[in-house]
Amino acid sequence: MFDPTHPLYREDLAGTLPYIEAAGLAGKRLHITGARGLIGSYLVDALALFNRESSAGKPIHIYAMGRDLAAMEQRCKTRPGCIFCGTTSRSLCQ
């Protein structure tokens, strides 16, 4: 089972942060589909880490979409700027 709090995963995320040129995304809205998958979840976590450690002043608003609304809600609780959406609940993303 995947554990996003595992020290190796957190270390990997921190190691990618210098390579993310997300400063231009500060204050913008990103809609990420497949946010429960491997790439989507990593992207959400990396952008949330950017929000947590950035001095840009404006967070990136992350609209994370996945099939399991309850799982998305749980995942977004601890990620700054993350708003969860279900694939059948477009109104939650607006």
Helices and strands, with pairings:
Elements (H helix, E strand, L loop, with lengths): L6 H10 L12 E5 L4 H16 L7 E6 L2 H8 L5 E5 L8
Parallel strand pairs: 1-2, 2-3
Q: How would you describe what is shown here?
A:
By secondary structure, the chain is an alpha/beta fold. It has one domain (7-93). It is built from three helices and three strands, in the order αβαβαβ. It has helices at residues 7-16, 38-53, 69-76, and strands at residues 29-33, 61-66, 82-86. Strand 1, helix 2 and strand 2 (61-66) form a beta-alpha-beta unit. The radius of gyration is 13 Å and the shape is globular. The mean pLDDT is 79.
List keywords for this structure.
94 residues, 3 helices, 17% strand, globular, alpha/beta
- Kindly state the number of beta strands: 3
Please list the strands of the largest sheet in the order they lie side by side. 1-2-3
Number of helices: 3
Write down the secondary-structure element order: HEHEHE
Helical amount among residues, as a percent range?
25-40%
Instruction: Sketch the major β-sheet.
Output: 3 strands, parallel
Computed over alpha carbons, the radius of gyration is: 13 Å
